[in-house]
Amino acid sequence: AGGLCIAQSIKIPREPRPGEFAKVIGRLMETSTARGVVLFANEDDIRRVLEAATLANLSGHFSWVGSDSWGAKMAPVQGLEDAAHGAITILPKRASVPGFDEYFTSRSLENNRRNLWFHEFWEDDFNCHL
Length: 130
Prior knowledge:
Number of strands: 3
Pfam family, one: ANF_receptor
Radius of gyration: 21 Å
Number of domains: 2
CATH architecture of the largest domain: 3-Layer(aba) Sandwich
Helix content: 25-40%
CATH topology of the largest domain: Rossmann fold
GO cellular component, one term: membrane
Mean pLDDT: 89
Shape: elongated
CATH superfamily of the largest domain: Response regulator
Number of helices: 5
InterPro entries: ANF_lig-bd_rcpt, GPCR_3_mtglu_rcpt, mGluR, Peripla_BP_I
Protein name: GRM6 protein
Low-confidence stretches: none
Keywords: Glycoprotein, Membrane, Transmembrane, Transmembrane helix
């Protein structure tokens, strides 16, 4: 209704094989009119997508909208600035809550019984079984 459509939804495998990112760029090119790419990926995968776009001589072809995993970082785009040029990244506002760190680190099993998830956190954090 708003003139926007999702042309494709491409999932990057957890353990991508060689050439996987070239395939991603190839799939993006299948829809010739689609230029905007919303990229929710980790830093390494973002870098590899941008590298694949560069190798395919498509720097500047796509308009990237990136998740917070690269919104405040240089590493994913360093050396790939031409491919990432004009990208918009979304970074949720971060703010420290006064006293939260002290409160959270003072929690223990004795003083934190009402939080149902806390025992799972405790087991994971201290590598134990209650």
